[in-house]
Design goal:
By secondary structure, the protein is mostly helical. The chain has 17 helices and six strands. Strand 5 and strand 6 form a beta hairpin. Helix 7 crosses helix 8. The protein starts with a strand and ends in a 27-residue tail after the last helix. The protein binds s-citryldethia Coenzyme A. S-citryldethia Coenzyme A binds next to helix 16.
C-alpha cells in the first residue's frame, strides 16, 4: 500500500488505513469507519464545500496565498497582456494555445453562429424594459436550448462543439439586444468584420466613436480574459452539478448564470457601484467602515474564499481602468474606491481577515465609465465566464471518475412519528 492515513476510532479502538492520493483521501474511503456493522459509515461534513475537492481539473490553477492565477498553466498576467478573449476561450476549452490556422478556424466557427433565432429576439422584446438584465439573460440562455434540440446529444462531440461555438457567439448578442431593448433602441446586427469585443461594443452602441475607441475595445477584451475562468467557484460548480445530469449545455449555462447573479459572487460588481454611490464622498468613508466592522454591511468587492492575498486580476483591472478613464474621463466614484482600498490594505480589521479587493471591485467602475448600466455588469461577467464554464463542462463529460452529482446529508430531523388529524393538532 502506498502512502496511507491511519485513523483510530476512539469509539471502537479500531484502526483504519486510508490511502492518500495526490496528498488527499477519497471521502468514500471513510465509509468503512463504523460502530455497528449495519451503520451507513462515516462521511465528511463540509457545508459550502470549504475543504472538499469535487473533481480533478487541469483547466485553471489558483494559489490563494501567493495570489497566483493560471489558465492551462499560462499566468493570467501574460494572457491579459498578450492574448485575446477568443484565443483564451480556445485555450481553456481545448487545453493548448491554438496555432494560427487553428485560431482562424475557431474564430470563423464562432462567427458562423453569430445569428440569434428571430423568435429569441421576439422574446427579448417581451421583457418589460426595466427588467434586470441578469434575469432576462438567464431565461434567454435556457430558451436558446429549445432552438437547438440536438444539443441534448452531449455524447456527440460535433454537437458539443457547435453548442460551444453558439454559446460563445450568442451570449454577447443576447446581452447587447436586451440592452438595446431596455433603452428603447433597435437591435444592431453582428458585424463579422469586427473582432469579438469590438463586435459586442458595436452591437451595444452602434459604432458610437466615443464608446468604440480602440482603448475601450482593448480594455473590454482584457476584462473578458480576466473573467474567463476561476476553477471551482460557485457558478462553475453549478455548471458541473447541472452538467452531471446530462442536460444540454444551454440549460447548464443558464443555471451557472443564475449562480453568478448573486451579490456574493458575480453580482458583487453591481453591488460595489451601489455601495460607492451610497457612500457618496470620501468624507463618509469612516462612518461606513464602522458599519462594516459592526457587520451591519459588507465591503462589497473585497474578500475571497480562496485569495488571501491581492486578487491578481484586480491589479489588471486597475490598469484597464486607467486606460478607460483616459478616454472617458475619470469616474467620480474612483476616489472613494481608492480610499476604501487603502484603508482595507492597512487597517487591522481588514488585514486580519484578508479582505483584499477582488475581481469585482474595479470592474463596475470601468463598465459604468464605458456607458454600461449597472444591471448589465454581471452580464459582462457572464460573457467573460461562459468559455470557462464550457471548459469545465467539457472536462466533466470526459472524466470517467464523475457520475451524477448527489451529495449526502447529516439528518437532524424527527425520527418516525404518526400523522395527526387536523382536529387533533
Ligand atoms: C467572485 O470563488 C471565486 O473564485 C469567485 C470569483 C470568480 O472569479 O468566480 O472570484 C468571483 O465571486 C469574487 C467575490 C465577489 N463577492 C464579493 O465581493 C462580496 C463581498 N465578499 C464577501 O461576501 C466574502 O468575502 C466572500 C463571499 C467573497 C467570501 O466569503 P467567505 O470565504 O465565506 O468568507 P467568510 O464569510 O467566512 O468571512 C471570513 C471573515 C468573516 O469575519 P469573522 O466572522 O471572521 O469576524 O471575513 C469577513 C466575515 O465577516 N468578511 C467580510 C467580507 N468578506 C468576508 N467582512 C466585510 N466585508 C466583506 N466583503
Amino acid at each position: 500500500m502506498s502512502e496511507v492515513l491511519t485513523i483510530t476510532d476512539s469509539r471502537t479502538n479500531k484502526e483504519y488505513k486510508v490511502e492518500i492520493h495526490d496528498g488527499n483521501i477519497r471521502a468514500k474511503d471513510l465509509r468503512q469507519i463504523k460502530v455497528k456493522e449495519e451503520d451507513f459509515g462515516m462521511m465528511s461534513y463540509d457545508p459550502s464545500f470549504e475543504n472538499t475537492a469535487s473533481c480533478k481539473s487541469s483547466v485553471t490553477y489558483i494559489d490563494g496565498d501567493a495570489g497566483i492565477l493560471r489558465y492551462r498553466g499560462y499566468p493570467i498576467e501574460q494572457l491579459a497582456e498578450s492574448s485575446s478573449q477568443l484565443e483564451v476561450s480556445k485555450l481553456l476549452i481545448d487545453g493548448e494555445l491554438p496555432s494560427k490556422d487553428e485560431l482562424s478556424k475557431w474564430i470563423s466557427d464562432v462567427k458562423d453562429e453569430n445569428n440569434l433565432p428571430d423568435e429569441i429576439n421576439n422574446i427579448i422584446k417581451a421583457f418589460p424594459p426595466n427588467s434586470h438584465a441578469m434575469g432576462a439573460l438567464t431565461s434567454l440562455e435556457a430558451a436558446l436550448s429549445t432552438f437547438y434540440p440536438n444539443s441534448k446529444n452531449i455524447t456527440d462531440e460535433n454537437e458539443n462543439y457547435k453548442s460551444i461555438c453558439r454559446l460563445i457567439a450568442q451570449v454577447p448578442i443576447l446581452a447587447a439586444n436586451f440592452y438595446r431593448h431596455s433603452q428603447g433602441l433597435s437591435f444592431i446586427n453582428p458585424d463579422d468584420s469586427l473582432d469579438y469585443s469590438e463586435n459586442f461594443l458595436n452591437m451595444m452602441f452602434n459604432g458610437d466613436n466615443k464608446k468604440m475607441h480602440p482603448d475601450l475595445v482593448s480594455a473590454m477584451d482584457t476584462l473578458l480574459i480576466l473573467h474567463a475562468d476561476h476553477e471551482q467557484n460557485c457558478s462553475a460548480s453549478v455548471m458541473r452539478n447541472v452538467g452531471s445530469s446530462e442536460p444540454d449545455p444551454f440549460s447548464a449555462v443558464s443555471a451557472a448564470t443564475a449562480a453568478l447573479y448573486g451579490p456574493l459572487h458575480g453580482g458583487a460588481n453591481e453591488a460595489v457601484l451601489q455601495m460607492l454611490t451610497e457612500i457618496g464622498s470620501v468624507e463618509n468613508i469612516p462612518a461606513f467602515m464602522d458599519k462594516v466592522k459592526k457587520k451591519e454591511v459588507k465591503l462589497m468587492g473585497f474578500g475571497h474564499r480562496v485569495y488571501k492575498a491581492y486578487d491578481p486580476r484586480a491589479k489588471y483591472l486597475k490598469e484597464a481602468a486607467d486606460k478607460v478613464f483616459n478616454v472617458t474621463g475619470t469616474n467620480p466614484l474612483l476616489d472613494i474606491a481608492l480610499e476604501l482600498e487603502s484603508i482595507a490594505l492597512s487597517e487591522d480589521y481588514f488585514v486580519a481577515r484578508n479582505l483584499y479587493p477582488n475581481v469585482d471591485f474595479y470592474s463596475g467602475l470601468i463598465y459604468e465609465s464605458m456607458g454600461i448600466p449597472k444591471d448589465m455588469f454581471t452580464v459582462l461577467f457572464t460573457i467573460g465566464r461562459t468559455p470557462g464554464w464550457l471548459a469545465q463542462w467539457k472536462e466533466l463529460l470526459a472524466d470517467k471518475d464523475q457520475k451524477i452529482a448527489r451529495p449526502r446529508q447529516v439528518y437532524t430531523g424527527y425520527n418516525s412519528r404518526d400523522y395527526v388529524n387536523i382536529e387533533g393538532r
